[in-house]
Amino acid sequence: MSPMKNFITLNDLASPIKTIQLAKSCKKDPFGHVHLGQRKTIGLLFFNPSLRTRLSTQKAAKNLGLDVMVMNFSNEAWAIEYENETIMSGLRSEHTKEAAQVVSQYCDFIAIRAFASLTDQKRDEEEVVLRKFAAFASVPIINMESATAHPLQALADGLTIEEQVTIKQPKIVLSWAPHPKALPHAVANSFIGLMNHTKADFVITHPEGYDLNHAIVGNHKVEYNQEKALEGADVVYVKNWCSYTDYGAILRTDNKWMMTREKMKQTNDAFFMHCLPIRRNVVASDGVLDHAKSLVIEQANNRTFAAQAVLQEFLTNG
Ligand code: CP
Hints:
Blueprint: H1 16-28, E1 41-46, H2 52-63, E2 67-72, E3 80-81, E4 94-95, H3 96-106, E5 109-113, H4 121-125, H5 128-136, E6 141-143, H6 151-164, E7 171-176, H7 186-195, E8 201-205, H8 214-217, E9 221-223, H9 226-230, E10 235-239, H10 261-264, E11 271-273, H11 286-289, H12 296-317
Parallel strand pairs: 1-2, 1-5, 3-4, 5-6, 7-8, 7-10, 8-9, 10-11
Helix pairs in contact: 1-6, 1-12, 2-12, 3-5, 6-7, 6-12
This protein binds phosphoric acid mono(formamide)ester.
Phosphoric acid mono(formamide)ester binds near residues 52, 153 and 277.
């Protein structure tokens, strides 16, 4: 396989499992390759808010000796135009064509966070922001959560499962949970991508109307009865997403699908996972989040080593 050009989904990796193993070795010896990134720079461009991704990616880069530049595009940069051959007489002042080439002169890597609009499904599916930057940049583009994927989160989740779950073929359940705001599908999509490479009995559970993109779900089992799905689970990964078929819609906000200790008691003493941030007592109860089997803080810790492994692959393979 030729060296990775960009990291936009897990499919860009030669082997997500090998990258998770590399993340494990980065965690054991975070500064073991501090010379790899010396005299190189990564630019982190944020079109949306972040706590974990912003800090863990900086930490990962610094562990490898990289310089880091961070810019909030939502309020600090010129508004970017993405359309080709357009008359830029509106509010957008700078075209991706120049922006991507200019940032490429300052940086050896460009990492981008650009969420889904959840109003324009076609544009979201096309990953316009990341793909346009990739088209005009002369350095690799790294996905820090895009419209449809959050692969750095999936790698951190994979590392957390690898470290914590000793059962050979665990039952892993991805469960929808309620949320007052319309949230994207990126985390769920990339978790399913991770499951494509994981030996597990994997079940996706959500209310009717919340089916994810069939092209991503593939042949994985979907169970509309949450209670049934949770029976015997070893890992319960909870996440909200808005409707995909009725794109961007919130179909229900009642608390019937919230994760509670009572529901967790029906599992095989399962670990609880969530990518964070999480709304307490809306998505999951205090009792679930504060329980010894909750892995949410370790997942966030592993974000550093997931990002470090991806950067190390780029730095090693050119
Ligand atoms: N999980 C995650 O991506 O967190 P942030 O949105 O805070 O970066």
